[in-house]
């Protein structure tokens, strides 16, 4: 059976280094935040990306809601993303990448990764 892509299928690229550093699903999640940050920036909107875990699951259907919650918790703990809630009644979180910390972590990872003798 030949796989064909439908026009409604979205395409995602994946950084192999980022996937190695964070894990595939966490890297894809982070790149999805980056995508929405850039889209918001072009539209003149704030850099915060607001989605519920359920909405993230709709964008990344192969990742369960529970896995997404663990990914968010991990990225927050590593300070790679910042999050905030919109208000007292709306508990939907907004996210943005902490680019300075991500760049530093990535540089340290690449330095460590390339120092291995293969």
Written description of the protein model:
Helix content is 53%, strand content 10%. It has a domain at 48-113: Arc Repressor Mutant, subunit A. The mean pLDDT is 85. Strands 1-3-2 form a three-stranded antiparallel sheet. It starts with 15 loop residues before the first helix and ends with a helix. It is globular and about 45 Å long. The longest helix has 19 residues, at 24-42. The chain has 118 residues and is mainly alpha-helical.
In short:
This protein is mainly alpha-helical and 118 residues long. Helices cover 53% and strands 10% of the residues.
How much of the sequence lies in strands comes to: 5-15%
CATH class of the domain at 48-113: Mainly Alpha
**Assembly category:** single chain
Give the terminus-to-terminus CA distance: 39 Å
Count of DSSP helices?
5
Largest sheet properties: 3 strands, antiparallel
CATH superfamily of the domain at 48-113: Winged helix-like DNA-binding domain superfamily/Winged helix DNA-binding domain
CATH topology of the domain at 48-113: Arc Repressor Mutant, subunit A
User: What is the H/E order?
Assistant: HHEHHEEH
Roughly how many Å is the radius of gyration? Answer: 16 Å
Percentage of residues in helical conformation: 40-55%
């Amino acid at each position: 059976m030949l796989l064909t892509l439908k026009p409604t299928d979205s395409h995602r690229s994946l950084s192999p280094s980022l996937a190695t550093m964070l894990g595939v699903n966490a890297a894809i999640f982070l790149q999805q935040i980056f995508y929405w940050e850039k889209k918001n920036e072009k539209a003149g909107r704030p850099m915060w990306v607001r989605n519920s875990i359920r909405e993230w699951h709709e964008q990344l259907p192969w990742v369960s809601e529970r896995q997404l919650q663990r990914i968010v918790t991990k990225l927050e703990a590593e300070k790679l993303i910042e999050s905030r809630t919109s208000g007292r009644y709306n508990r939907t979180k907004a996210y943005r990448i902490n680019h300075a910390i991500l760049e530093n972590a990535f540089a340290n990872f690449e330095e460590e990764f390339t120092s291995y003798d293969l």
